[in-house]
Amino acid sequence: MISELNPQPLPPRSMERVRIYVDADVSYDLKRMNKVVANVLGKLGCGGCHSGRILEFLDMREFIVNPKTLDVEGRMGAQF
């Protein structure tokens, strides 16, 4: 019977933090963000869930200027 059960809490486990750097134009577009999440979860090996992981989305705020063209590009893997 249910009254006879003595459920014990599971021991705490550390959550894996996953940092995902995105451009502002991606972070404010729901369809694109859904695609990003699906792609990240696929890379993590479980396309359907992120159980046990904290997905941390960070806006890319560092840029590199091409000295020849003066084009501005986001810096991938930048430390913020």
What would you say this structure looks like, in words?
The model has no long low-confidence stretch (mean pLDDT 80). It contains 2 helices and 4 strands, in the order βααβββ. The protein has helices at residues 24-27, 30-44, and strands at residues 16-22, 53-59, 63-65, 72-74. β3 (63-65) and β4 (72-74) form a beta hairpin. It has a domain at 13-61. The protein is elongated and about 75 Å long. It is of the alpha+beta class and 80 residues long. The strands form 2 sheets. It has a two-stranded parallel sheet. The protein starts with 15 loop residues before the first strand and ends in a 6-residue tail after the last strand.
Q: Keywords for this structure?
A:
alpha+beta; single chain; 25% strand; 4 strands; 80 residues; two-stranded parallel sheet
First and last CA, distance: 54 Å
Question: Low-confidence runs (pLDDT<50, min 5 residues)?
Answer: none
Largest sheet: 2 strands, parallel
Mean pLDDT: 80
Rg estimate, integer Å: 20 Å
Instruction: Specify the number of helices.
Output: 2
What structural category arises from helix and sheet content?
alpha+beta
What's the total count of β strands? 4
Shape call: elongated
- Percent in helix: 10-25%
Strand and helix order? EHHEEE
Strand order of the largest sheet: 1-2
* Percentage of residues in strands: 25-35%
Summarize it.
By secondary structure, this protein is an alpha+beta fold. It has two helices and four strands, in the order E-H-H-E-E-E.
Layout of SSEs?
Elements: E1 16-22, H1 24-27, H2 30-44, E2 53-59, E3 63-65, E4 72-74
